[in-house]
Design a protein that fits this description.
The complex is a heterodimer of chains A (299) and B (199). Chain A has helices spanning 10-26, 30-42, 46-65, 92-106, 152-155, 168-183, 201-210, 223-236, and strands at 6-7, 75-83, 86-87, 132-138, 143-150, 159-163, 191-199, 252-262, 267-274, 281-285, 291-293. Chain A has 299 residues and is of the alpha/beta class. Chain A folds into 2 domains: 6-27 and 69-151 and 279-293, Dihydrodipicolinate Reductase, domain 2; 153-274, no CATH class. In chain A, the strands form 3 sheets. Chain A has a 5-stranded mixed beta sheet. A 4-stranded mixed beta sheet of chain A has the order 6-9-7-8. The two termini of chain A are 33 Å apart. Chain B has 199 residues and is α/β, with parallel strands linked by helices. Chain B has one domain: fumarase. Chain B is built from 6 helices and 9 strands; from the N terminus they run βαβαβββαβαβαββα. Chain B has helices spanning 12-15, 35-46, 88-98, 111-120, 132-138, 178-197, and strands spanning 3-7, 23-32, 59-61, 66-70, 73-78, 102-105, 123-127, 139-146, 156-171. In chain B, helix 2 (35-46) packs across helix 3 and helix 3 (88-98) runs parallel beside helix 4. Chain B starts with a strand and ends with a helix. The chains are: A alpha/beta (299), B alpha/beta (199).
Amino acid sequence: MGADNFLVTGQVVEDVTTKLIQLAVTELPQDTKEALRRAYQQEQDSVGKSQLKTILDNLELAEKTCTPICQDTGFIIYYVKVGSKLEGLDQIEGALRNATIKATKEVPLRPNAVDPFSQSNSGNNTGMHSPYVHWEIVPGNTLEITVLPKGGGSENVSVLEMLNPNQGIAGLKKIVIDTVIKAGAKPCPPTILGIGIGGGADIAVNLAKESLLLPLNQSNPDLKVAKLEKELLEIANQTGIGPMGLGGKTTVLAVKIAYAQRHPASFPVAIIVQCWAARRASAKIYPNGKVEYLSHKVN
Amino acid sequence: MAIYKFITPISEEEIRKLRINDTIYLSGTIVTARDEAHKRALNLHKQGKKLPVNLEGLAIFHSGPLMKKEGDLWHVVAAGPTTSSRMDVFEDQFIKNFKVRIIIGKGGMGKKIVNVMRMHGAVYGAFTGGAAILAAKAIKQVKGVEWLDLGMPEAMWIFEVEDFGPITVAIDTHGNNLFESVQMVAEENKKKIYRKLGI
């Protein structure tokens, strides 16, 4: 083991991850809370405004009592950035699984892992490919863990369209508007739209979901993408669907786009819809054992 | 946009007073049922068997609550609504056979249900999706649970509630459907957006 190598221990990963799950399901990241507060101030429809008021009251109460915001505590997905100089990598996946089981019991989480053949619920949020882990190798010697507990109602209105390349970005705009209107109240608006463009079908879907991890107040550094995100947000909010689909101008809080090169014959577009309870939490573990929580303030 | 405070059991006459956009705060008994509980209840009815709870005049809550057992007692951690349209295939029979007066959920229900509600005297109330702690706070007691073999979210939970709400009346007994009105406005807006985008 080299001097700057870092042996990651399963126990540390398990403890930090358990904490991350608890943070994610009980308290929204600051940027999301701010977006919801701003929406409440700007909403003029009386039913829409009352929905946003209920949402804000619920958030405050969940945070104060350290209780899950929504009873659907989601399907547990992890995004892990592993420093190339880390050792003990074989301990991480087991630790993430243990943390899921522990958090299910202690936070608690609703058991949401159902066998598609027997329909039986495992009771602890684990099972075949559950929790699901996305791995990324990055330079350095830190370990960054993000948990994304994704609710079922919003996931059910996800869309993958393999456009004809000549439809291009104009075709994408149409799909976004159609999706928002067709989804209506179902995904618990105001939603966040994660959009993936290009790659193959799987890559577009992956990029769409991953873009939900980005803070809402951080605009895309790629100006052409930032411009499209802004335009899509504006037109989505002209639909009139409103908070909880009961009418109003707040239908979407943010649009996040990620793209890859496309095959000359393909123009894949994926849209993953995230409900207003956009729960995520991240932390970075350093070689000296220091833990930095990236999405939440932790005392 | 009147505000009503109801105590279960609710009479058909009371329910017929409601209009879309009214607000209800509900006290008394509400019973959770999702896909699996609907299926089982209707199967029992078909076999001529009684349900474990008499649902007449009560409210059904489309919710898969998050519950915690301490000792022998269950308590509610979080209990927001789930997407009601999944229950579209069951709810007409459910309302006819069991005479429930309020269906609480999120996202609204289909045309068939609007008709059944008009004919049999029931309303659909929207509870803010995800507002699970506010809902749990209004649940004063877990009176019982049936069919726990279906799993925690799908079981039939019987709750005693006090001022459970705000519930927005979104389908009334007069054939009005708030979600459909919003959807119609959105379809009109879609045409304008298409024009603006040149598509």
